[in-house]
Amino acid sequence: MNNLFSFLAGLVFGLGLLISGMANPQKVLGFLDITRQWDPSLALVMGGALVVGVMGFRVVGRMSKPLCVASFSLPLKKAVDKPLVVGSLLFGIGWGMAGICPGPALVLLSYGTVKGWVFFASMLAGMGLYEWFVARKRATVP
Q1: Transmembrane stretches, by residue range (predicted)?
Q2: Taking the domains of the chain in order of start, what are their residue ranges?
Q3: Gap between the Cα atoms of 53 and 118, Å rounded
Q4: CB 96, CB 32: distance < 8 Å
Q5: Exposure class string for 59-75: b at 16+ Cβ within 10 A, else e
Q6: pLDDT for 46-90, tens place per residue?
Q7: Most exposed residue of 32, 38, 64, 103, measured as fewest CB within 10 angstroms of its CB?
């Protein structure tokens, strides 16, 4: 049952990306590039997502247990640290350069676009490099 709800949530999310234009790299770049013909329409999408997210966290905060799984899976870490800041910067730089972030990359994979596949492969390589560096760092710390 959990897999069904996960699939449905992913399907709704993907449809939202398609309908809103967030899966279109040109539209995203038009939003991020404020020096040319700026397209502010994605600000409404992000604002709507923020409202839904805040409401979701408020509802979850009032629930004693989730409806479909044994326990909630919420972030426990609340501190702003160096890995969070560096990761956020890398995410923003990548999003600004390509006009794609991980969610829309998965949507673009379904289209079979070269740009989508290159981005996805690069994203996986970056994740692998991060895991490799973290493992190396742990191995050298006494």
Answers
A1: 41-60, 84-111, 117-135
A2: 2-140
A3: 30
A4: yes
A5: eeeeeeeeeeeeeeeee
A6: 899 999 999 998 998 899 888 877 888 888 888 999 989 998 998
A7: 64
